[in-house]
Amino acid sequence: MKCQLKPQLKPPSFTLKQTPKYKPNAMLKTVKNLFIFAMLTASHGVFASSNPPTTSNKQNTVPYQASSDVKQFCKDLSSKLRTVKYQGCLSLELQVATTQSIEGRPLTYREYIPESIQSVPKLPKGRILFLSGIHGDEYSSISITYLWMLAMLKHPESTGQHWLFLPLANPDGLFGKKPSTRTNARGVDLNRNFPSPDWEQLALSYWKHYYRKNKRRYPGAGPASEPETQWIVETVERFKPDAIISVHAPYGLIDYDGPEHATPDNIGGLKHKELGTYPGSLGRYAGEYLNVPVLTLELHAAGTMPTEQEIYNMWQDIEEWAQLKLKRKETDF
Questions:
Q1: What are the pLDDT digits (tens) for 209-244?
Q2: Per-residue pLDDT reduced to its tens digit, 177-215
Q3: What is the Cβ-side half-sphere exposure of residue 141, based on CA atoms within 13 angstroms?
Q4: Residues 326, 243: contact at Cβ < 8 Å?
Q5: Cα–Cα distance, 212 to 208 (Å, whole number)
Q6: Strand runs (DSSP E) across 30-114, as ranges?
Q7: What's the pTM value of the predicted model, to 2 decimals?
Q8: What b-and-e string marks burial along 153-169, b requiring 16 or more CB atoms within 10 Å of the CB?
Q9: Angle at the Cα of 167 from the Cα atoms of 161 and 171, rounded to 5 degrees
Q10: Which residues contact 280 (CB under 8 A, 6 or more apart)?
Q11: DSSP of 117-155
Q12: Cα separations (Å) of 54 from 50, 115, 162?
Protein backbone atom coordinates (compact mmCIF):
# COMPACT_ATOMS: atom_id res chain seq x y z
CA MET A 1 0.00 0.00 0.00
CA LYS A 2 1.59 3.25 -1.11
CA CYS A 3 1.35 6.31 1.03
CA GLN A 4 -0.63 9.31 -0.14
CA LEU A 5 1.40 12.51 0.00
CA LYS A 6 -0.06 15.36 2.02
CA PRO A 7 -2.05 17.58 -0.39
CA GLN A 8 -1.04 20.85 1.22
CA LEU A 9 2.61 20.31 0.32
CA LYS A 10 3.57 21.30 -3.20
CA PRO A 11 5.47 18.74 -5.28
CA PRO A 12 9.15 19.36 -5.94
CA SER A 13 9.67 22.05 -8.54
CA PHE A 14 12.28 20.82 -10.96
CA THR A 15 12.49 19.78 -14.58
CA LEU A 16 14.22 16.51 -15.35
CA LYS A 17 16.14 16.33 -18.58
CA GLN A 18 14.84 13.96 -21.21
CA THR A 19 17.41 11.50 -22.45
CA PRO A 20 17.48 9.17 -25.43
CA LYS A 21 16.90 5.46 -25.06
CA TYR A 22 19.85 3.42 -23.96
CA LYS A 23 22.07 1.85 -26.57
CA PRO A 24 25.07 -0.38 -25.84
CA ASN A 25 28.37 1.42 -25.77
CA ALA A 26 31.98 0.61 -24.94
CA MET A 27 33.07 1.13 -21.35
CA LEU A 28 34.46 4.61 -20.73
CA LYS A 29 38.18 5.06 -20.17
CA THR A 30 39.09 6.25 -16.70
CA VAL A 31 40.40 9.74 -16.09
CA LYS A 32 42.13 9.07 -12.78
CA ASN A 33 44.65 11.92 -12.63
CA LEU A 34 42.14 14.56 -13.73
CA PHE A 35 39.51 13.28 -11.32
CA ILE A 36 41.86 13.28 -8.33
CA PHE A 37 43.14 16.72 -9.31
CA ALA A 38 39.60 18.07 -9.36
CA MET A 39 38.96 16.75 -5.85
CA LEU A 40 42.28 18.01 -4.53
CA THR A 41 41.76 21.52 -5.87
CA ALA A 42 38.19 21.59 -4.59
CA SER A 43 39.13 20.46 -1.09
CA HIS A 44 41.94 23.02 -0.86
CA GLY A 45 39.81 25.97 -1.87
CA VAL A 46 41.12 26.76 -5.36
CA PHE A 47 37.59 27.58 -6.51
CA ALA A 48 37.42 30.32 -3.91
CA SER A 49 39.85 32.46 -5.92
CA SER A 50 38.92 31.46 -9.46
CA ASN A 51 35.88 31.44 -11.69
CA PRO A 52 33.62 28.39 -11.35
CA PRO A 53 34.37 25.71 -13.94
CA THR A 54 32.19 25.81 -17.03
CA THR A 55 31.21 22.80 -19.10
CA SER A 56 28.68 21.91 -21.77
CA ASN A 57 26.84 19.88 -19.14
CA LYS A 58 24.14 22.50 -18.59
CA GLN A 59 20.52 21.94 -17.73
CA ASN A 60 19.30 24.81 -19.89
CA THR A 61 20.62 27.60 -22.08
CA VAL A 62 19.77 30.39 -19.63
CA PRO A 63 22.85 31.59 -17.70
CA TYR A 64 22.71 30.30 -14.16
CA GLN A 65 22.13 32.82 -11.40
CA ALA A 66 22.31 31.52 -7.86
CA SER A 67 19.17 32.37 -5.93
CA SER A 68 19.29 33.88 -2.47
CA ASP A 69 18.30 30.46 -1.11
CA VAL A 70 21.27 28.79 -2.81
CA LYS A 71 23.66 31.51 -1.63
CA GLN A 72 22.49 31.11 1.95
CA PHE A 73 22.64 27.32 1.63
CA CYS A 74 26.24 27.48 0.37
CA LYS A 75 27.17 29.95 3.11
CA ASP A 76 25.74 27.66 5.78
CA LEU A 77 27.30 24.53 4.27
CA SER A 78 30.76 26.03 3.90
CA SER A 79 30.60 27.36 7.47
CA LYS A 80 29.60 23.95 8.81
CA LEU A 81 31.89 21.63 6.84
CA ARG A 82 35.54 22.52 6.34
CA THR A 83 35.76 20.48 3.12
CA VAL A 84 33.12 22.67 1.48
CA LYS A 85 34.12 26.03 0.01
CA TYR A 86 31.56 28.74 -0.66
CA GLN A 87 32.56 29.41 -4.28
CA GLY A 88 32.87 25.70 -4.93
CA CYS A 89 29.34 25.20 -3.66
CA LEU A 90 28.04 28.02 -5.87
CA SER A 91 29.80 26.48 -8.87
CA LEU A 92 27.62 23.38 -8.53
CA GLU A 93 24.70 25.45 -9.86
CA LEU A 94 22.26 23.86 -7.45
CA GLN A 95 18.54 24.03 -8.11
CA VAL A 96 15.93 24.46 -5.38
CA ALA A 97 12.75 22.40 -5.05
CA THR A 98 9.41 23.95 -4.13
CA THR A 99 9.18 21.62 -1.15
CA GLN A 100 11.09 22.88 1.89
CA SER A 101 12.28 21.27 5.08
CA ILE A 102 10.24 21.55 8.28
CA GLU A 103 12.13 24.70 9.28
CA GLY A 104 11.88 26.22 5.80
CA ARG A 105 15.34 25.39 4.48
CA PRO A 106 15.80 24.69 0.77
CA LEU A 107 15.99 21.15 -0.58
CA THR A 108 18.53 21.22 -3.38
CA TYR A 109 19.36 19.01 -6.34
CA ARG A 110 21.65 18.87 -9.38
CA GLU A 111 21.55 16.82 -12.58
CA TYR A 112 24.60 15.63 -14.51
CA ILE A 113 24.22 14.31 -18.04
CA PRO A 114 27.16 12.92 -20.07
CA GLU A 115 28.88 15.59 -22.12
CA SER A 116 28.36 15.72 -25.87
CA ILE A 117 31.40 14.81 -27.95
CA GLN A 118 31.94 17.00 -31.03
CA SER A 119 28.26 17.97 -30.95
CA VAL A 120 27.21 14.29 -30.92
CA PRO A 121 25.13 13.53 -27.82
CA LYS A 122 26.54 10.84 -25.58
CA LEU A 123 23.78 8.41 -24.70
CA PRO A 124 23.44 7.98 -20.92
CA LYS A 125 23.66 4.34 -19.94
CA GLY A 126 21.35 4.67 -16.98
CA ARG A 127 19.69 6.95 -14.45
CA ILE A 128 21.14 7.01 -10.95
CA LEU A 129 19.65 8.89 -8.00
CA PHE A 130 22.34 9.83 -5.47
CA LEU A 131 21.33 10.75 -1.90
CA SER A 132 23.41 12.08 0.97
CA GLY A 133 22.74 13.84 4.23
CA ILE A 134 19.60 11.86 5.08
CA HIS A 135 21.13 11.87 8.56
CA GLY A 136 22.34 15.36 9.40
CA ASP A 137 25.14 14.27 11.76
CA GLU A 138 26.98 12.17 9.14
CA TYR A 139 29.29 14.96 7.98
CA SER A 140 31.60 12.83 5.85
CA SER A 141 28.74 11.59 3.66
CA ILE A 142 27.80 15.17 2.76
CA SER A 143 31.40 16.27 2.23
CA ILE A 144 32.35 13.36 -0.04
CA THR A 145 29.25 13.96 -2.15
CA TYR A 146 30.28 17.60 -2.57
CA LEU A 147 33.73 16.53 -3.81
CA TRP A 148 32.29 13.97 -6.23
CA MET A 149 29.88 16.55 -7.62
CA LEU A 150 32.68 19.07 -8.13
CA ALA A 151 34.86 16.51 -9.88
CA MET A 152 32.00 15.49 -12.16
CA LEU A 153 31.28 19.13 -12.98
CA LYS A 154 34.91 19.77 -13.88
CA HIS A 155 35.30 16.52 -15.85
CA PRO A 156 31.91 15.41 -17.21
CA GLU A 157 33.68 12.96 -19.52
CA SER A 158 34.37 10.81 -16.45
CA THR A 159 30.84 9.37 -16.37
CA GLY A 160 28.47 7.65 -18.75
CA GLN A 161 25.43 7.87 -16.46
CA HIS A 162 22.61 10.36 -16.00
CA TRP A 163 22.95 11.41 -12.37
CA LEU A 164 20.51 13.23 -10.13
CA PHE A 165 22.12 14.34 -6.86
CA LEU A 166 20.22 15.33 -3.72
CA PRO A 167 23.29 16.46 -1.77
CA LEU A 168 21.60 17.27 1.55
CA ALA A 169 18.27 15.55 2.09
CA ASN A 170 18.00 16.63 5.75
CA PRO A 171 19.21 20.24 6.04
CA ASP A 172 17.50 20.79 9.40
CA GLY A 173 19.42 17.86 10.86
CA LEU A 174 22.73 19.41 9.79
CA PHE A 175 22.00 23.09 10.47
CA GLY A 176 19.14 23.21 12.98
CA LYS A 177 20.75 22.25 16.27
CA LYS A 178 24.21 22.03 17.82
CA PRO A 179 25.41 19.38 17.63
CA SER A 180 23.81 18.25 14.37
CA THR A 181 21.22 15.50 14.61
CA ARG A 182 20.43 12.25 12.82
CA THR A 183 16.74 13.20 12.73
CA ASN A 184 14.91 16.07 11.09
CA ALA A 185 13.43 19.06 12.94
CA ARG A 186 10.46 16.99 14.15
CA GLY A 187 12.73 14.30 15.53
CA VAL A 188 11.98 11.79 12.75
CA ASP A 189 14.59 9.43 11.31
CA LEU A 190 13.96 9.92 7.59
CA ASN A 191 15.44 6.50 6.87
CA ARG A 192 12.58 4.92 8.82
CA ASN A 193 9.89 7.15 7.32
CA PHE A 194 9.68 5.80 3.76
CA PRO A 195 6.27 4.31 2.84
CA SER A 196 7.15 0.62 2.67
CA PRO A 197 4.01 -1.56 2.52
CA ASP A 198 4.58 -2.81 6.07
CA TRP A 199 4.98 0.64 7.66
CA GLU A 200 1.51 0.87 9.20
CA GLN A 201 1.74 -2.60 10.67
CA LEU A 202 5.35 -2.76 11.83
CA ALA A 203 7.22 0.57 11.95
CA LEU A 204 6.11 1.90 15.32
CA SER A 205 6.00 -1.48 17.04
CA TYR A 206 9.47 -2.27 15.71
CA TRP A 207 10.72 1.06 17.05
CA LYS A 208 9.19 0.42 20.47
CA HIS A 209 10.33 -3.18 20.94
CA TYR A 210 13.53 -3.49 18.88
CA TYR A 211 14.93 0.02 19.37
CA ARG A 212 13.33 0.51 22.80
CA LYS A 213 12.00 3.91 21.68
CA ASN A 214 15.44 5.22 20.75
CA LYS A 215 14.72 8.83 19.73
CA ARG A 216 17.38 8.71 17.02
CA ARG A 217 15.34 6.09 15.14
CA TYR A 218 11.79 7.35 15.61
CA PRO A 219 9.95 6.53 12.32
CA GLY A 220 7.40 9.34 12.54
CA ALA A 221 3.65 9.54 13.03
CA GLY A 222 2.90 7.91 9.69
CA PRO A 223 4.51 6.70 6.46
CA ALA A 224 6.07 9.58 4.51
CA SER A 225 4.83 12.00 7.14
CA GLU A 226 7.80 14.33 6.61
CA PRO A 227 8.17 16.78 3.70
CA GLU A 228 11.77 15.68 3.14
CA THR A 229 10.65 12.06 2.75
CA GLN A 230 7.77 13.08 0.49
CA TRP A 231 10.19 14.97 -1.73
CA ILE A 232 12.48 11.95 -2.10
CA VAL A 233 9.54 9.63 -2.78
CA GLU A 234 8.17 11.89 -5.51
CA THR A 235 11.65 12.30 -6.96
CA VAL A 236 11.94 8.53 -7.24
CA GLU A 237 8.54 8.35 -8.92
CA ARG A 238 9.38 11.08 -11.45
CA PHE A 239 13.02 10.29 -12.17
CA LYS A 240 12.48 6.51 -12.38
CA PRO A 241 16.09 5.63 -11.48
CA ASP A 242 17.81 2.45 -12.58
CA ALA A 243 19.59 2.56 -9.22
CA ILE A 244 19.75 4.59 -6.02
CA ILE A 245 23.00 5.25 -4.17
CA SER A 246 22.85 6.52 -0.60
CA VAL A 247 25.87 7.58 1.45
CA HIS A 248 26.03 7.11 5.22
CA ALA A 249 28.54 6.57 8.03
CA PRO A 250 30.13 5.06 10.15
CA TYR A 251 29.88 1.28 9.64
CA GLY A 252 32.63 1.04 7.03
CA LEU A 253 30.93 -1.33 4.58
CA ILE A 254 28.59 -1.63 1.60
CA ASP A 255 25.00 -2.67 2.07
CA TYR A 256 22.78 -3.62 -0.86
CA ASP A 257 19.05 -4.14 -1.27
CA GLY A 258 17.25 -5.00 -4.48
CA PRO A 259 17.38 -7.41 -7.41
CA GLU A 260 20.16 -9.98 -7.32
CA HIS A 261 21.69 -9.01 -10.67
CA ALA A 262 23.09 -5.75 -9.26
CA THR A 263 24.68 -7.19 -6.11
CA PRO A 264 28.00 -5.33 -5.70
CA ASP A 265 31.47 -6.63 -4.93
CA ASN A 266 33.61 -4.03 -3.18
CA ILE A 267 33.51 -0.24 -3.48
CA GLY A 268 37.01 1.05 -2.83
CA GLY A 269 38.04 -0.40 0.50
CA LEU A 270 34.44 -0.97 1.59
CA LYS A 271 33.42 -4.64 1.70
CA HIS A 272 29.94 -5.93 0.96
CA LYS A 273 28.03 -6.98 4.05
CA GLU A 274 24.25 -7.30 4.30
CA LEU A 275 22.73 -5.27 7.13
CA GLY A 276 19.12 -6.10 6.32
CA THR A 277 16.21 -3.70 5.98
CA TYR A 278 13.73 -2.18 8.40
CA PRO A 279 10.13 -0.99 8.15
CA GLY A 280 10.29 2.44 6.52
CA SER A 281 13.93 2.23 5.45
CA LEU A 282 14.98 3.25 1.94
CA GLY A 283 16.25 -0.28 1.32
CA ARG A 284 12.91 -1.85 2.16
CA TYR A 285 10.87 0.77 0.30
CA ALA A 286 12.90 1.15 -2.91
CA GLY A 287 15.05 -1.99 -2.93
CA GLU A 288 12.47 -4.58 -1.89
CA TYR A 289 9.12 -2.94 -2.70
CA LEU A 290 10.01 -1.03 -5.90
CA ASN A 291 12.72 -3.53 -6.93
CA VAL A 292 15.21 -0.71 -7.63
CA PRO A 293 18.84 -1.51 -6.78
CA VAL A 294 19.78 0.44 -3.64
CA LEU A 295 23.51 0.67 -2.93
CA THR A 296 24.37 2.06 0.49
CA LEU A 297 27.91 3.28 1.10
CA GLU A 298 28.74 3.30 4.80
CA LEU A 299 31.93 5.31 5.27
CA HIS A 300 34.27 4.41 8.14
CA ALA A 301 33.71 7.60 10.12
CA ALA A 302 31.07 10.33 10.27
CA GLY A 303 33.56 13.07 11.17
CA THR A 304 36.68 12.05 9.25
CA MET A 305 37.07 12.00 5.47
CA PRO A 306 38.69 9.16 3.50
CA THR A 307 41.94 9.95 1.70
CA GLU A 308 41.83 11.44 -1.80
CA GLN A 309 42.97 8.11 -3.23
CA GLU A 310 40.20 6.25 -1.39
CA ILE A 311 37.64 8.79 -2.59
CA TYR A 312 38.75 8.25 -6.19
CA ASN A 313 38.82 4.46 -5.86
CA MET A 314 35.27 4.44 -4.53
CA TRP A 315 33.99 6.58 -7.38
CA GLN A 316 35.76 4.46 -9.99
CA ASP A 317 34.18 1.33 -8.50
CA ILE A 318 30.75 2.98 -8.42
CA GLU A 319 31.06 3.77 -12.14
CA GLU A 320 32.19 0.21 -12.86
CA TRP A 321 29.29 -1.20 -10.83
CA ALA A 322 26.84 0.97 -12.77
CA GLN A 323 28.40 -0.04 -16.09
CA LEU A 324 28.43 -3.77 -15.46
CA LYS A 325 25.60 -4.54 -13.06
CA LEU A 326 22.63 -2.30 -13.85
CA LYS A 327 19.83 -3.21 -16.21
CA ARG A 328 18.52 -0.16 -18.05
CA LYS A 329 14.91 0.67 -18.64
CA GLU A 330 14.20 1.94 -22.14
CA THR A 331 11.76 4.59 -21.05
CA ASP A 332 11.53 8.32 -21.62
CA PHE A 333 10.19 10.99 -19.28
A1: 999 999 999 999 999 999 999 999 999 999 999 999
A2: 999 999 999 999 999 999 999 999 999 999 999 999 999
A3: 31
A4: yes
A5: 5
A6: 95-100, 106-112
A7: 0.82
A8: bbbbbbbbbbbbbbbbb
A9: 160
A10: 191, 192, 193, 194, 195, 196, 199, 203, 219, 220, 223
A11: BTTBPPPP--EEEEEE-SSTT-HHHHHHHHHHHHHHHH-
A12: 12, 12, 18
Per-residue exposure over 126-152, b if at least 16 CB sit within 10 Å of its own CB, e if not? bbbbbbbbbbbbbbbbbbbbbbbbbbb
C-alpha to C-alpha distance for 188 and 166, rounded to whole angstroms: 19
Determine the Cα–Cα distance for residues 125 and 291; give it in Å rounded to an integer.
Answer: 19
Burial class (CB in 10 A: 0-12, 13-18, 19+), 195: buried
Q: Where are the beta strands (DSSP E) in the chain?
A: 95-100, 106-112, 127-132, 162-166, 243-248, 253-257, 294-298
**Domain ranges within the chain, ordered by starting residue:** 32-50+97-325
pLDDT of 36-82, one tens digit each? 444 444 443 322 222 333 333 444 568 899 999 999 999 999 999 99
Superfamily per CATH, domain 32-50+97-325: Zn peptidases (3.40.630.10)
> Can you tell me whether residue 108 is helix, strand or coil?
strand
Cα–Cα distance, 189 to 204 (Å, whole number): 12
Strand order in the sheet with 95-100: 95-100, 106-112, 162-166, 127-132, 243-248, 294-298, 253-257
Q: Is 254 helix (H, G, I), strand (E, B) or coil?
A: strand
CA–CA separation, 271 and 269 (whole Å): 6
- Angstrom distances, CA of residue 55 to CA of 52, 78, 154, 223, 250: 10, 23, 7, 40, 34
User: In the 8-state DSSP scheme, what is residue 114?
Assistant: P
CA distance 110 to 93: 7
Whole-angstrom CA distances from 91 to 31, 151, 235 are 21, 11, 23
The confidence score (pLDDT) of residue 61 equals 61
